[in-house]
């Protein structure tokens, strides 16, 4: 079997907090504050512009289960 799953890395290179973005500084995304915000004493806010929509992992598993059941029941004949 050649079932290879390629997982994309979650870290995005250009993903900086608001303060670093405004000042065009390099954000190390430290927690709770990145080093730049710690140095400047500003609030570190990282805005995720991607909208999180769609079913959650658990729901997807449920859907897969149902699809699998449907599939198996339709191929029984
Ligand atoms: Zn930053
Ligand atoms: Zn920051």
From TrEMBL:
Pfam family, one: Zn_clus
GO cellular component terms, A-Z: nucleus
InterPro entries: TF_fung (IPR050815), Zn2-C6_fun-type_DNA-bd_sf (IPR036864), Zn2Cys6_DnaBD (IPR001138)
Molecular function as annotated in GO: DNA binding; DNA-binding transcription factor activity, RNA polymerase II-specific; zinc ion binding
Highest taxon of source: Eukaryota
CDD domains reported in the protein's UniProt record: GAL4 (cd00067)
Protein localization: Nucleus
Keywords: DNA-binding, Metal-binding, Nucleus, Transcription, Transcription regulation
PROSITE patterns documented for this protein: ZN2_CY6_FUNGAL_1, ZN2_CY6_FUNGAL_2
Domain annotation Zn(2)-C6 fungal-type: ranges: 16-46
Protein name: Zn(2)-C6 fungal-type domain-containing protein
